[in-house]
Amino acid sequence: AAESSDAQAEEREALLEALRQERGQEHEDIMQLRLSLFNFTAAQSTQIKDILLEQLAALKDIKLRGSGRNKEKFGLSRGILGSFFSARESKSINTSQDSNGR
Questions:
Q1: Radius of gyration (C-alpha) of the chain in whole angstroms
Q2: How far are the Cα atoms of 52, 72, 92 from residue 8, in angstroms, in the given order?
């Protein structure tokens, strides 16, 4: 009977040790999974940041080209209006000279 209880005690100890080892391995696996997930997330974050920086540069370029066009349009409008008013002033001066000359 004593031998049987000793054998059962040894079997329980062996099972407990196997469970401890299994839990230790699970913990290591979980830590490895966390590290892999962290590395994957960091890599994705870097890729997203790079894409956003490229998009920002493209948008800035578009904005600069757009503001350049607006300046050109504004300058063109000023030039046309300036010519129009110059022509009116010249015409007005010529008309007043013609009136004075008669």
A1: 43
A2: 65, 95, 123
pTM of the predicted model as reported, rounded to 2 decimal places:
0.47
**Tens digit of pLDDT for each residue in 71-80?**
555 555 555 5
Q: Residue 23 to residues 17, 19, 20, 91: CA-CA distances in angstroms?
A: 10, 6, 5, 100
Nearest 10 degrees: CA dihedral of 71, 76, 77, 83?
150
Please, what is the average pLDDT of the chain?
81
> In sequence order, what DSSP letters do the residues of the chain get, joined into one string?
-HHHHHHHHHHHHHHHHHHHHHHHHHHHHHHHHHHHHHHHHHHHHHHHHHHHHHHHHHHHHHHHHHHHHHHHHHHHHHHHHHHHHHHHHHHHHHHHHHHHH-
Q: Could you identify the residue written with the tokens 């409008």?
A: 77
Task: Give the tokens for residue 18.
Answer: 């196997």
